[in-house]
Amino acid sequence: MRFTNDRGSSTVEFTGVSSLVVIVALAVMQFAVIAHVRTIVIDSAIAGAAFGSLADSTLAAGITRTEQLLNIGIASDLIDSVSGRVGSVGGRPVTVVTVAYRVPAFALWVPAVSDTVSARAFVEQP
Asked: Which range of residues forms the domain containing residue 110?
């Protein structure tokens, strides 16, 4: 049996296509939020490590600077921890600032994305 009446088929097509478009748009927005938060965290960690490695500065000042920049750039409840240490690269001292953060997902059944970022800067000698 062959149906020649296409009445109502455009409604079904619109419903199917529009739901796929919404899913793709939400996925793109989720990726953009993750990329934005990661960029802010990386930049804040780099700036804090550079500030803490200045000749007239301390590691604690670098950590404080990182926290200030993070609070300006993103919500403070997304940051799990900010820590710092003095390390060594090739025998030269470096300031290392590490930030642990998470990004909530739009979809409620998807867990939040967690990551850790570290930035290093050579310590200036007076």
From this structure: 9-122
